Amino acid sequence: MSDQAECGGHRAAPVHTHPDDVPLLTALSALADPVRIQLVRDLASHPDWALSCSNFDVPVGRAAKSHHFSVLRDAGLVEQRDQGPKRLNRLRREEFDARFPGLLDLTLRADDAE
């Protein structure tokens, strides 16, 4: 299975929402799920574009993982790009922090890990 199929389909490039266009409730909802928090934490601990979708070890199937990435894109948290058969990811930290100062810092605090 291609990496693209695992996290958002393989035909069209993913659609990204800019954090400036994201309501607070959408951002909070995206960060309220433990799987999405893990995806965000994994992205935050790696350089931009270093992780493909298959690099994430989360306890969900590929359809659910695709859904979680879609929610994160819609919330302006994640940007994805295709490189060959892989879909690479980056956390849009700078843009998201400009829109919601401190929210990612709270999410990424190790002492709040489940």
TrEMBL record:
Region ranges (Disordered): 1-20
Transmembrane segments: none
Domain HTH arsR-type, first and last residues per copy: 16-111
InterPro entries the record matches: ArsR-like_HTH (IPR011991), HTH_ArsR_DNA-bd_dom (IPR001845), WH-like_DNA-bd_sf (IPR036388), WH_DNA-bd_sf (IPR036390)
SUPFAM superfamilies, alphabetized: Winged helix' DNA-binding domain
Gene Ontology terms for molecular function: DNA-binding transcription factor activity
Name used for this protein in its record: Transcriptional regulator
Provenance organism: Streptomyces gilvosporeus
